Amino acid sequence: MITFICLFFPPVLSVFLYEKIQKIRLDLRSFFGYYCLDVVMVNLICFMVKHFVLNTASDSMADLTPAGAMNYLVLALAAAVVMAFICVFAKKNVKISKEVADEEYEAV
Asked: How many Å apart are CA 56 and CA 69, to the nearest integer?
């Protein structure tokens, strides 16, 4: 149960923080999309910090003690706040478009 809370709770806060910063209310599909993205990214950041900085990646998440969980939650909450601001920045400044070549357009 501790592992479940550590892995899946901080991204919920990240999505709520994203909603507050953007001053919008996400529908269920968008909420689930941002939540899944945040779960992957927050835990990736935490695992990378545990591996490359703290050298504690060999510790099993299945045997997470309450002291280890507190350390992980502090790191995960910080990563969740950072991810919320990255999502806001990306939403405002990144645009994705698809360009169709002329020969493809004429062939259709």
From this structure: 13
